[in-house]
Amino acid sequence: MQTDVLRFNGSYRYADRATLASALSRARRQLADDDLESGRAWLRCFVTSGTDLVVNLVVAPGSADRVAAANVFSILAHDALEGAVESHLGPRSLDPSTSGVDD
Question: pTM of this prediction?
Answer without folding.
Answer: 0.82
